[in-house]
């Protein structure tokens, strides 16, 4: 069965592009709407497998989309949402991750350019994983840079941590960094030891632990 | 302390008394014999004395007594032809026009004449207020105690009471000084106009500079990248049939260029108006800013509503600049940002534990913040001793509503009461009060010889009650009229007194 998608995006060109892109990759676009209230109705009514949402939507052109997504997730916990935006903010990332259930993506709109990676991110979120924009992760790490345990990571471990925080699986990380699976596993174990986190079983719980760790430092 | 003040006041009065004949002579020679060169020194001399009195009074009473003088005229500027024009006369050198302007400045300023009035009267007022208690003390102490056994304690009592009145007398003198020497509404307005035009110029300047910066950034950044992208795409189009592989490489390059252009635009937008600010308002924008700073920032924000956009933006950029300063120069580790509303004012306090030594005069962007917030009457207070901690306070007095409508309009019930009073006050006062009294005094009789009672209630009452009833109706009407006048006055008392001047008393609002 095709995964069902709801799209909330006010720019016609981008909305249309997303519809075509997703349909070409085997998704079923059940609703493509252009305003906050419509989006909320679609999310509640359709209960899609994944929703792609722009932060800024009519009528107020403030953070309508984000608010609609958060409201829908309060009613339907764990509803997979991928938020797209012209800019990324740690503040919004925290709000999205706050309930700790995952199934959240937060990407710059530029990431749509690379269809393959974008579709990968959509699939990951639909499956309950996370997809954080590298820019969010970079900001998170930069603002945590002075904290001690992070300083003790080796450069390679830092790279692994960044990719892990973006929500990638061990397999994806090993492919990205041209490492063997066992090497990545060794690095992640070492990172978890240094950050004093309990090594989690599945990829997703592991990512959430890392993000929670990075966020907690700044509250 | 009282004795010191007493002596100081007496000394000042004596000095004024000594200067007075000189001043009168100078004025006489100036206006009588046309020795106009005497005016400036004499008027300015009196100003010095008056300023000393103002300083004294403000210091003693703790209430600032600002100088009321108009600002000194700016030096004359030559026209394009190099001549100096004043009214309908052209001058070759700036000397005459400058002199004329100075003359006008001194003569046309009401404060000069108020000063003169003060100089003429102050010594006598001082003596009248301060000498009697001193004489009474002296008399009380030196009372001829041998004359009567009671005279000594009585004299002592007189002396003590007189000594106790001296602080009151000094207070009274302060009030008297305030009457003549405080700033007039007009001079306050003049000062305000000056500061406003300065603020306007700097606001316009900084806005223009901002636009130039944006233009330059767009021109060198995104625009140039888009041009390069177009060229790359063109080249790819040419290659695509002959060499698809090379075309693919070019297309990938074009995509990278578009990503870079987008990143640059994002940075630029953040500098113009940060997206979070537009989406969430000041509170969340500052929180987002704090998250992006590598310092430990504690943010406490207590804002009930969103501010209007220009103030929000100014406040945001001020906080951003202060945070950047704390990161770059202060060597701080912990920063506290506190934003609260205080009446119509917005107060932002940024404290850090850095090395201190922030000084607006040494650059570091503090002057820029001052200029930016000056457009909103904002002020920046800096406390940054060497070694820290640094505390910066930004106060935007009219962030929530303007100066003019800081007073809410009257509540409905007050309006109803006022309307009711105006509508009914005539009834007890005229027909039931005054007219009834007149009818009763002159005993108006109708054609049938009966007393005319019409609808005057009092006349229907028993004889004994008629006068008390009338005597009650008249004050009742007066009270209603007074209430109708006083309610609105009470409501806007602050504004009213603020705008009252000697010449235009409290009748106009």
Question: What can you tell me about this protein's structure?
Answer:
The complex is a heterodimer of chains A (219) and B (509). Chain A folds into two domains: 4-132, Rossmann fold (3-Layer(aba) Sandwich), CATH 3.40.50.2300; 137-216, Winged helix-like DNA-binding domain superfamily/Winged helix DNA-binding domain (Arc Repressor Mutant, subunit A, Orthogonal Bundle). Chain A is built from eleven helices and six strands. Chain A has helices at residues 12-24, 36-46, 64-75, 90-97, 115-126, 134-143, 148-151, 155-166, 170-177, 181-195, 203-216; strands at 4-8, 28-33, 50-54, 81-85, 104-108, 130-132. The mean pLDDT of chain A is 86. Chain B has helices spanning 2-32, 39-61, 95-107, 110-141, 151-181, 185-242, 244-272, 275-280, 282-291, 309-330, 366-374, 412-424, 426-442, 457-460, 463-491, 493-499; strands at 84-86, 89-91, 296-302, 334-342, 345-352, 379-383, 390-396. The two termini of chain B are 42 Å apart. With 509 residues, chain B is of the alpha+beta class. In chain B, a hairpin with a 2-residue loop joins strand 4 and strand 5. Chain B is extended, with a radius of gyration of 37 Å. Chain B: It catalyses: ATP + protein L-histidine = ADP + protein N-phospho-L-histidine. Chain B: Its EC number is 2.7.13.3. Chain B: It holds the Pfam family HisKA_3. Chain B: The chain crosses the membrane at residues 7-25, 31-50, 124-146, 152-170, 417-442, 465-490.
Attribute tags:
heterodimer; A: 219 residues; alpha/beta; Rossmann fold; Arc Repressor Mutant, subunit A; 2 domains; six-stranded parallel β-sheet; globular; B: 509 residues; alpha+beta; Heat Shock Protein 90; 4 domains; five-stranded mixed β-sheet; two-stranded antiparallel ribbon; 8% strand; HATPase_C_sf (chain B); transmembrane helix (chain B); two-component regulatory system (chain B)
């Amino acid at each position: 069965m095709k995964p069902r998608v709801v799209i909330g995006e006010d720019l016609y060109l981008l909305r249309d592009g997303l519809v075509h892109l997703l349909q070409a990759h085997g998704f079923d676009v059940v609703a493509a709407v252009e305003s906050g209230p419509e989006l909320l109705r679609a999310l509640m009514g359709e209960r899609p497998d994944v929703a792609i949402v722009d932060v800024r939507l009519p009528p107020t052109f403030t953070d309508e989309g984000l608010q609609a997504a958060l409201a829908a997730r309060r009613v339907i916990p764990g509803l997979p949402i991928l938020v797209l935006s012209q800019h990324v903010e740690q503040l919004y990332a925290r709000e999205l991750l706050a309930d700790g259930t995952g199934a959240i993506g937060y990407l710059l709109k530029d990431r749509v350019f690379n269809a393959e990676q974008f579709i990968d991110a959509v699939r990951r979120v639909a499956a309950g994983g996370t997809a954080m924009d590298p820019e969010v992760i970079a900001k998170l790490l930069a603002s945590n840079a002075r904290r001690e345990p992070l300083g003790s990571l080796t450069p390679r471990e830092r790279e692994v941590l960044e990719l892990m925080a973006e929500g990638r699986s061990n397999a994806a990380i090993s492919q990205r960094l041209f490492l063997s699976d066992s090497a990545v596993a060794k690095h992640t174990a070492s990172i978890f030891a240094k950050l004093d986190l309990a090594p989690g079983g599945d990829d997703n719980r592991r990512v959430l632990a890392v993000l929670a760790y990075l966020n907690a430092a700044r509250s | 302390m009282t004795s010191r003040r007493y002596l100081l006041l007496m000394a000042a009065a004596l000095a004024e008394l000594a200067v007075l004949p000189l001043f009168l002579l100078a004025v006489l020679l100036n206006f009588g014999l046309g020795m106009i060169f005497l005016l400036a020194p004499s008027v300015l001399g009196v100003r010095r004395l008056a300023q000393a009195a103002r300083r004294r009074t403000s210091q003693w009473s703790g209430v600032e007594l600002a100088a009321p003088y108009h600002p000194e005229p700016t030096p004359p500027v030559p026209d394009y032809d190099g001549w100096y024009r004043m009214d309908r006369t052209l001058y070759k050198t700036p000397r005459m026009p400058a002199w004329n302007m100075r003359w006008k400045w001194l003569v046309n300023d009401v404060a000069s004449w108020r000063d003169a009035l003060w100089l003429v009267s102050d010594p006598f007022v001082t003596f009248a207020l301060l000498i009697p208690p001193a004489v009474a003390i002296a008399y009380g102490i030196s009372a001829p105690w041998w004359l009567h056994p009671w005279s000594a304690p009585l004299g002592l009592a007189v002396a003590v009471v007189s000594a106790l009145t001296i602080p009151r007398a000094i207070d009274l003198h302060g009030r008297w000084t305030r009457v003549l020497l405080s700033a007039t509404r007009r001079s306050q307005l003049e000062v305000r106009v000056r500061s406003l035009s300065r603020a306007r110029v700097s606001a316009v300047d900084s806005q223009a500079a901002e636009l130039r910066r944006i233009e330059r950034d767009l021109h060198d950044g995104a625009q140039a990248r888009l041009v390069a992208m177009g060229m790359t795409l063109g080249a790819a189009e040419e290659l695509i049939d002959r060499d698809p592989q090379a075309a693919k490489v070019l297309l990938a390059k074009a995509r990278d260029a578009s990503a870079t252009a987008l990143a640059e635009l994002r940075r630029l937008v953040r500098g113009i108006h940060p997206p979070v600010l537009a989406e969430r308002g000041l509170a969340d924008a500052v929180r987002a800013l704090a998250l992006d700073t590598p310092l430990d920032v504690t943010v406490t924000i207590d804002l009930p509503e969103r501010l209007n956009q220009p103030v929000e933006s100014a406040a945001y950029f001020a906080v951003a600049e202060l945070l950047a300063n704390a990161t770059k120069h202060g060597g701080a580790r912990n920063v506290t940002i506190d934003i609260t509303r205080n009446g119509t004012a917005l107060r932002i306090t940024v404290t850090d534990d850095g090395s201190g030594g922030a000084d607006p005069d040494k650059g570091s962007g503090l002057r820029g913040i001052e200029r930016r917030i000056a457009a909103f009457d904002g002020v920046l207070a800096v406390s940054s001793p060497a070694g820290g901690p640094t505390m910066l306070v930004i106060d935007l007095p009219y962030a929530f509503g303007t100066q003019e409508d800081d007073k809410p309009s009257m509540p409905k019930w007050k309006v109803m009461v006022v309307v009711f009073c105006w509508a009914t006050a005539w009834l007890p006062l005229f027909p039931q009060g005054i007219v009834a009294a007149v009818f009763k005094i002159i005993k108006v009789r109708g054609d049938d010889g009966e007393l005319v009672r019409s609808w005057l209630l009092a006349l229907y009452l028993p004889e004994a009650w008629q006068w008390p009833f009338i005597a009650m109706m008249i004050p009742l009407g007066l009270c209603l009229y007074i209430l109708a006048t006083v309610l609105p006055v009470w409501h806007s008392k602050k504004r009213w007194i603020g705008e009252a001047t000697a010449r235009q008393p409290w009748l106009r609002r």
